[in-house]
Amino acid sequence: MARLPRLVVPGQPHHVTQRGNNQQPVFLDDEDHARFLGWLRDAARTYKVSVHAYVLLPGRLDILATPADATGLAQMMQWIGRKYVPYFNQKHARSGTLWQGRFKTSVIDADNYFLACSRYIESIAVHAQLAAAPQDYRWSSYAHHAGQRQDPVIVDHPVYWALGNTPFQREAAYTALFHAPLTNTQVLGIESAVSKGWPLGSEAYKAQLQHRARRQVLPARRGRPPKQEKSAG
Description:
Blueprint: E1 14-19, H1 30-46, E2 49-57, E3 60-67, H2 72-91, E4 104-107, H3 110-127, H4 142-145, H5 158-161, H6 167-177, H7 184-196, H8 203-213
Antiparallel strand pairs: 1-3, 1-4, 2-3
Helix pairs in contact: 1-2
């Protein structure tokens, strides 16, 4: 079955993820993380992509971002790759592919899933046992949303702004969301959507998105359609 083109919808948030080839590390020290974030900031501005949340793990990265047009997201990721891969290979005396194929993405229903996806991204380090709490992991956007530091990479989404009228209110409301972990259903839904390239949202949102995109954005139903019984006569 041919792979569908990546679905990118201007003005909608997207969950982006990319892993190291053969599960190999892609960030080995502080400089690697800092270089990548610097290039992410520059590329996002150049290609008009608003980055709302991120985490950099040893062998993986996740980003929540809204592109202004249909090409900016791919251009941003490609530009970063052209900078980061040669840097990483030269510094760590390696060659060849760094990433496991192309990045994966899922369009997000902001009204219903933006905050859940942001929390998911900023909690991955805890689930991976790299930190005891989100605030303990340096290479994510949690500290920005919690009011611990300003992150030049981040552009706050309207859904985050709606959490309060002042920065303190927004930060307090956001950190309070982390008092209760995401459910297994929420986590599996987010992970399944981004791994398969399907949108994450309500059924109404998905149907509207499919109509807007004029292409398949929903999984096809498996199996043959049920047979209709013949009427007796």
